[in-house]
Amino acid sequence: MTKIIETIGLTKKYKKTSVVNQIDLSIEQGDIYGFLGPNGAGKTTTIRMLLGLIKPSAGQINIFGKDLAKNKINILKGIGSLVEYPSYYGNLTGFENLEAIRRLLRVQDKNRVMEILKTIGLTSAKDKLVKNYSLGMKQRLGIGVALLGSPKLLILDEPTNGLDPSGIQEIRELIKKLPHEFGITIMISSHLLSEVDQMANKVGIINQGQLIFQDRIQELRRKSAPKIHIRVNDPSMAKTILNNDGLDVTLTSDGEITINENDDSKVAYIANRLIRQQLAIYRIQEEKRSLEDIFLDITRRGENIS
Ligand code: ATP
Question: How far apart are CA 42 and CA 96, in angstroms?
Fold first, then answer.
């Protein structure tokens, strides 16, 4: 697979603090890569480095297989981006805004603006003044502007920030179709896993400047196994028995045994083991965690799960 973005030990320091610390991103052709992390994790700083807007303190960035530091202009020609809220001419229509930028970018194909309007679902609103657009429409127009130069890579920094559920859904549908229809690779940042869950095939999770997870989204689900909670009459005895069997068991403050397992045979084994030791089992419960719970859990713990 061709690497579209590859960073090696990418670092940004402000004063002595590394706000982005030695991160190795790997984004392949056709990926929709969800770049996730809580507020202040270092997403925007990373994206700004990828777009050549700020200089890394250390490390290397390769985009389209070339070193960004040495081929900046050429590489940037192949990237469309949306970083923070884009500015528009509010007193011009959506069509006029796109047309003005088409001319600025010297995009020869005059049909391009109508094509873009269709892609971003704004054909029927093309003659409306942009100041009357909803935030969701403005964000889609921003993506349209990013698409004007027919980029191979689209980098979007929190495009769904501040949108209502239907606005988020529209952006999601738009982004999902781009790799198929135009062969574009997409990197999209968000502080909510649920927002990228239904479109990203790969995720990178950054927390306090460190990339703590990077893999297929299925791996995130698999690696974060559901938990089993057990209530018994003597929790500390149960913990000792299960620990002696080599199981990783924790005892919560409210006297519950928690195990990071949900394999049927393991659960049956545990139940059998406790009963044979004369313990009374009151309850065995599975805690199904949503992807969002998993995300919050690992960013709170801050440990590396990749
Ligand atoms: P958000 O979603 O809140 O924008 P983020 O993940 O994009 O979060 P960044 O904007 O990259 O986070 O910020 C990461 C850290 O770097 C923050 O603690 C921020 O205060 C700090 N930071 C960013 N820019 C600068 C700067 N120019 N000087 C000093 N510190 C900075």
Answer: 35
For residue 34, report the distance from its CA to the centre of ligand 1, in Å.
18
Provide the mean pLDDT of the chain.
90
Nearest CA to ligand 1 atom 26: 14
Per-residue model confidence as pLDDT tens digits over 223-268: 666 789 999 999 999 999 999 999 989 999 889 999 987 788 989 9
Rounded Cα distance between 35 and 56, Å, is 18
Residue 303: predicted pLDDT: 52
Domain that holds residue 157: 3-222
Q: How many domains does the chain have?
A: 2
Q: How many CB atoms lie within 10 A of CB 31?
A: 21
- The ligand 1 atom at the shortest distance from the C-alpha of residue 45 is 11
Is 206 in the same domain as 240?
A: no
Same domain, 261 and 144: no
The ligand 1 atom at the shortest distance from the C-alpha of residue 38 is 6
